[in-house]
């Protein structure tokens, strides 16, 4: 799938992080949608139908685990890759993320190169939607 056809939802309550990631993704040719809390993220999943989600864990209203649970269960989105990018580097958090079917878990601060590599790897698993 070409970058220009891939829409990525960036979710973090820190505006500077969202703007930085959004800018870098757009420079790489990805379309972006942004949300600043868990509730807004779920609304954007429904309204904008992104192909992939980059998700922080610690956010107001709904945390990242709650958002991931909704994406996987309520929306039945097994095909939509979710990358967790979190400051929580505890092993229990990492295990929980993968047990809840996150596709990748990166610790903050993470190199943009690592995030881009993860996105490129996961794009090969996104089915074509017609």
Structure description:
- The protein has 5 helices and 5 strands, in the order βαβαβαβαβα.
- By secondary structure, the protein is an alpha/beta fold.
- It has a single domain (about 5-120), classed as 3-Layer(aba) Sandwich (Rossmann fold).
- The chain has a 5-stranded parallel beta sheet with strand order 2-1-3-4-5, with helices on both faces.
- Strand 4, helix 4 and strand 5 form a beta-alpha-beta unit.
List low-pLDDT spans: none
Structural class: alpha/beta
- Topology, number of strands: 5
N-to-C terminal Cα separation, in Å? 13 Å
Tell me the number of helical segments per DSSP (H or I, 4 or more residues long).
Answer: 5
CATH topology: Rossmann fold
Tell me, briefly, the overall form: globular
Kindly give the count of domains.
1
Helix-strand pattern: EHEHEHEHEH
Instruction: Compute the average pLDDT.
Output: 89
Q: What top-tier CATH class fits best? A: Alpha Beta
Give the name of the CATH architecture. 3-Layer(aba) Sandwich
Strand content is 15-25%
Helix content estimate: 40-55%
Outline the biggest β-sheet.
5 strands, parallel
